[in-house]
Amino acid sequence: MSKVHLGKGYQKLIVWQRAKELVVLVYKITDKFPKSEEFGLKSQMRRAAISVLSQIAEGYSRKSIKDKKRFIEIAIGSLYELESDIEVSNELGFLTESDYQKLIMKKGEVGYLLDRYYKSF
């Protein structure tokens, strides 16, 4: 039985690269959250960030433009979810001003790139 070799063309996408940076940033920053948030905002923010990254990769593999766009739409939805979680985390005092700004800037960059990627089809 032969092995199936999956291409990693999606890793060349700037939007995927920036989304990966966002995931790493979210993980590092949420690592500082209170222990009580282990299964709350910390987990939710990480899942939302990973979802953005995963949807970009999965959408890349789709053959039809309609399918590709649908996965980008899901990624955008996950990004909005993350944005909401960032705002709540900030209100609760879980984020330093510096961490809040880093997250908002990176989220904005990824959002801009997702929009451009969506419009490229």
Structure write-up:
It is a single chain. By secondary structure, this protein is mainly α. It has a single domain, classed as 23S rRNA-intervening sequence (de novo design (two linked rop proteins), Up-down Bundle), CATH 1.20.1440. It is 73% helix and 0% strand. It is built from four helices and no strands. It has helices spanning 14-30, 41-61, 65-91, 97-119. Helix 1 packs antiparallel against helix 2 (41-61), helix 2 (41-61) runs antiparallel to helix 3 (65-91) and helix 3 runs antiparallel to helix 4. The termini are far apart. Mean pLDDT is 94; it is low at 1-5.
Task: Explain the layout of strands and helices.
Blueprint: H1 14-30, H2 41-61, H3 65-91, H4 97-119
Helix pairs in contact: 1-2, 1-4, 2-3, 3-4
Index terms:
0% strand; 121 residues; de novo design (two linked rop proteins); 4 helices
What's the gist of this structure?
This protein is mostly helical and 121 residues long.
User: Main β-sheet, in a few words?
Assistant: none
> What portion of residues belong to β-strands?
under 5%
Order of helices and strands: HHHH
Cα end-to-end separation: 36 Å
Low-confidence stretches: 1-5
Please provide the count of β strands.
0
Under CATH at level 1, the class stands as Mainly Alpha
Count of DSSP-assigned helices:
4
Count of all domains: 1
CATH architecture: Up-down Bundle
Structural class: mainly alpha
Q: CATH homologous superfamily - what is it? A: 23S rRNA-intervening sequence
Basic shape: elongated
- CA-atom Rg in angstroms: 15 Å
Provide the residue-averaged pLDDT.
94
Task: Tell me the helix content.
Answer: over 70%
